[in-house]
Amino acid sequence: MNFLAHAYLSFRQPELLVGNLISDFVKGKSKYGYPEAILRGIDLHRAIDQFTDTHPVNAYAKKVFKPAVGLYASAFVDVVYDHFLATDQLAFPADSLAVFSQWVYQTAGEHSEHFPEKFAGTYPYMKEQDWLTNYQHRWGIEKSMGGLVRRAKYLEDASEAFAAFEAQYELLEKCYHRFFPELLLFVNNYYRKQLTSPGTTD
Q1: Cβ–Cβ < 8 Å for 32, 112
Q2: Which keywords has UniProt assigned to this entry (predicted)?
């Protein structure tokens, strides 16, 4: 549920942003019911997730969380990467994170007719509580981890995972800085080769 990263990697294109945000809530072949531009965002999101899940650097990051959350480790890595993106001055210098976050809420809200039911329930909380801006704060990450636990099966508490985040903060930050430039390159290549060509990916 790394909403900030997916929003950031949407090239400030509204329909691509919407598809990228809602992708986790779109199941199976229902994606083909969306307009072409939003479908491209859904497919982009899934390409990003596949690249992230198979990147060797992230295997180290997952080890930080596996003792606490087991198979959910990758989801917790996604959350902490949003923290490091939010605090990345190359991505968001000065106050630009807050400005970008408001653009995301405004733009997504203008396409709310395309929200799947579960995302439609999530979006108001994201906007009102300003999740994207608050990822820069450790307490914002703690709240996000709590949200993961509430949505996950077999998890009851996020305190051990948050303690691992704080204890291994520097290691996780190094993993982010090794990984994210490669993700940016991948997305730029994907966008150039796939999103500008006719049709969509599977």
Answers
A1: no
A2: Hydrolase, Lipid biosynthesis, Lipid metabolism
